[in-house]
Specification:
The protein is built from three helices and 42 strands. The protein has about 650 residues and is mainly beta.
């Protein structure tokens, strides 16, 4: 358990906060811990980018405005000598400045930035690890191919290598003819066991053969093309099986806490049944957490996930027809019925024939307190205000098999709080009960967040908002593919919750919900501290991507930084509620490979950040291969001619070279 306290301090300056196990702060027979505290209105932020400079931004902690004119000095720390001044500068109108690192960029160093503004002082510790030299624009690389992924000792390994060079970022790659390259084989211990040297032909390719030597360790081996390419293979000893085992589908749907029976069979590969042998089986159960509980578990707030446990085991004999039957009860705790749990069961079977050969089989299935589940198929990151939206709801059993049926849906506007809460001011949800149903022990500090939490997904923020006004409702008709179309009416900007329900046919009801964000040209109405979303995950060159920039903290200064290849290529400054909304970004050829945007603001001395990425695929480099033969059937020993046609994205044939 932990908690946070606010020291009763009002005067700016440097302090040392000391905690003591004893109230008298005695130095003997006591445990003392201390932490430095700097009370100031100046906030320094760093942009982590490669290269020989560091980008800093100075911001006023209370108002969030740029600290124009702030003086910043960059020092190197070294325990062997006093701090050394590397560079100094003055923040511009937007509060930013860029300082040169000198030799610290290449060698790595512990740095500290010292900022001064209107009598206030701020410190920011920086660490610059060793920076490798920046890769040249034109690089040489290799692709390795093998005739299979798994080999036995003593077998030949046939390989082919393609050597190419060019500018990866620009997508200007070309095969390299006449290049001499060594292809080497290494075992799991990294020892070199075989090698061959080849000179590439006019197409930049070469091929050869290596032998897997006997007596070497089994496992993962590696094929290396110099230092510019590699491929992984597996080397294993295996014996060809003489029979196989299968476990059939259950004759009727399985239910929790109800008797279940499954049948299986063992057959030789030539078709006859394995008439003599022994069957050993076991059933393991693992709880599948609902999304809201799994989300909390991943953050370490709630009890650890339970490991799989064996709930049934037994033995059986093979019949004369090679068949066997397994009966068990998929047991589950009835007290978990209302908590959204589902369970993964795995039946593992081992069959040993009269000759001592053992083969295994398994079958996995999922059960829950409802026999079906609903899911809203992934929608766009944000919906356009004033336009109808077409969604779909999927109905399937717990093993993912589509199920037809009927259902209903409701769309509700969320009742947002009057003021957006900063990330550190949002309380953590109370921990879930323990597996035995007992309440978790919670201290007041367990529900507090540290002030250095900078971001929260908007869905995480609105998950606790209650339902508000109902906007629309309707029926769902799930077809044989499990999908049911759902048409939403034009909506005003804001945050909504879609609730779906469907009876499972056994007296229970499956439910699903999805939060929807609707935005217009002026943005959206959401009490969220910071929103940064593209209207789609990817865009083609020539299209226009729309970026939603929104803050529920009016008047705050928003900083936008655009990155490509780890370097900023555009910076903007906006005022929340004035210059945000939907920003249109034309996608150009220079954006291929994608770019990202980072937004940040400062409020109440807390830094709030959000990031969004847009993928711009290399569709202009995409090729289509058509392979055709002159006949459909061949006999062993026949010769055949194959025709390969390479086409560009427009469907035009591509010339060789």
């Amino acid at each position: 358990h932990r908690t946070f306290v606010t020291p009763p301090l009002s005067e700016p300056g440097g302090y040392l906060v000391v905690a003591s196990a004893r109230p008298d702060f005695a130095r003997r027979e006591n445990r003392l811990r201390a932490a430095p505290l700097l009370l100031t209105d100046l906030v320094l932020q760093e942009e982590r980018q490669s290269g020989g400079t560091v980008f800093l931004r100075a911001v006023e902690g209370e108002s969030g405005r740029p600290a124009a004119g702030a003086e910043v000095a960059l020092h190197r720390l070294d325990w062997r000598q006093p701090p050394a001044l590397l560079a100094a500068g003055t923040a511009g109108e937007d509060g930013s400045l860029e300082l040169a690192l000198g030799d610290a960029a290449a060698r790595g160093a512990q740095l500290v930035a010292v900022g001064r503004h209107r009598g206030g002082l701020a410190l920011l510790g920086l660490y610059r690890g060793w920076q490798p030299p920046r890769e040249p624009a034109s690089q040489r690389r290799a692709l390795l191919f093998t005739d299979r992924a798994l080999y036995r000792p003593g077998q030949p390994l046939f390989w082919k290598v393609l050597v190419y060079e060019g500018e990866v970022r620009a997508g200007a790659l070309r095969p390299l003819a006449g290049a001499e390259i060594e292809v080497a084989l290494r075992d799991p211990n990294g020892e070199r066991v075989a090698a061959a040297t080849v000179t590439t032909n006019e197409f930049g390719t070469g091929s050869g053969e290596l032998k897997i030597p006997a007596g070497r360790p089994l496992g993962d081996w590696q094929l290396l093309a110099g230092e510019i390419g590699s491929a992984a293979i597996g080397v294993e000893e295996y014996k060809r099986p003489t029979f196989e085992v299968e476990v059939g589908e259950p004759p009727e749907p399985l239910r929790l806490n109800r008797p279940a029976e499954l049948a299986g069979e063992a057959r030789y590969l030539f078709g006859l049944p394995v008439a003599e042998g022994e069957v050993a089986w076991r059933v393991e159960r693992e709880p599948l957490l609902p999304p809201w509980l799994d989300w909390g578990w991943r953050r370490g707030w709630w009890p650890p996930r339970r490991a799989p446990e064996t709930i049934a085991a037994g033995r059986a004999a093979l019949g004369a027809d090679g068949g066997f039957r397994i009966a068990f009860v998929p047991a589950a705790d009835q007290r978990e019925a209302g908590r959204g749990f589902a369970y993964a069961y795995r039946l593992s079977v081992e069959v040993t024939d009269a000759g001592g050969e053992t083969r295994t089989a398994s079958r996995a299935f999922h059960l829950g307190w409802t026999s079906v589940r609903l899911a809203v198929e992934r929608v766009a990151p944000l919906l356009a205000a004033g336009e109808a939206a077409a969604l779909a709801v999927r109905r399937e059993d717990l093993d993912g098999v589509p199920r037809a049926g009927a259902g209903s849906w409701r769309l509700l506007r969320l009742a947002a709080p009057p003021v957006a809460a900063l990330p550190a001011d949002r309380p953590r949800p109370a921990p879930a009960p323990l597996p035995d149903g007992a309440a978790s022990v919670v201290t007041p500090g367990d529900l507090l967040r540290p002030r250095w939490e900078r971001a929260a997904d908007w869905r995480e923020v609105v998950r606790d908002w209650p339902d508000g006004e109902e906007i629309a409702r309707g029926a769902l008709a799930h077809g044989e593919d499990g999908r049911a179309p759902l048409a939403l009416p034009p909506l005003l900007p804001g945050v909504y919750r879609l609730r779906c329900a469907s009876p499972d046919g056994y007296g229970a009801q499956a439910e699903a919900e999805e939060e929807l964000l609707v935005a217009g040209p002026a943005g959206t109405a959401a009490a969220v501290p910071l929103l940064l979303l593209f209207d789609r995950p990817s865009a083609e060159v020539g299209e226009t991507a729309r970026l939603l920039v929104h803050s529920g903290l009016p008047g705050r200064t928003l900083f936008l930084d655009f990155y490509r290849d780890g370097r900023a290529f555009r910076r903007e400054r906006l005022a929340a509620g004035e210059g945000g909304g939907l920003i249109e970004l034309p996608v150009t050829a220079g954006d291929r490979g994608g770019f990202s945007v980072r937004a940040s603001l400062v409020a109440d001395h807390q830094v709030v950040e959000a990031q969004a990425e847009l993928e711009v695929p290399w569709t202009n480099r995409r090729l289509r291969l058509d392979l055709a033969s002159f006949r459909d059937r061949m006999r062993p020993g026949d010769h055949e001619t194959f025709r390969v046609v390479v086409r560009d994205p427009a469907g035009r044939p591509v010339e060789a070279g």
